[in-house]
Amino acid sequence: VYWLPAVLGSLLGFTP
């Protein structure tokens, strides 16, 4: 699931 890290990163204020 490629969008999941981006979503979590967005919530945390960064992107992996």
The structure class reads: mainly alpha
Calculate Rg over CA atoms. 6 Å
Principal-axis shape? elongated
Instruction: State the helical fraction.
Output: 55-70%
Strand content: under 5%
Give the oligomeric state of the chains in this entry, treating copies of one chain as homo and distinct chains as hetero.
single chain
Write down the overall mean pLDDT: 72
Query: How far apart, in Å, are the first and last alpha carbons?
Result: 14 Å
How many DSSP H or I helices? 1
Helix-strand topology string: H
Find the count of extended strands (DSSP E, 2+ residues): 0
Q: State the low-pLDDT regions, or none.
A: none
Q: Main beta sheet: strand number and arrangement?
A: none
Keywords: Secreted
Protein name: Cryptide Pep-14
Subcellular location: Secreted
Give a structural overview:
The structure is a single chain. With 16 residues, the chain is mainly alpha-helical. The chain is 62% helix and 0% strand. The protein is built from one helix and no strands. The model has no long low-confidence stretch (mean pLDDT 72).
What's this, in brief?
Helices cover 62% and strands 0% of the residues. The chain is an all-alpha fold and 16 residues long. This is Cryptide Pep-14.
Brief descriptors of the model:
1 helix, 16 residues
Write the layout of secondary structure elements.
Elements: H1 3-12
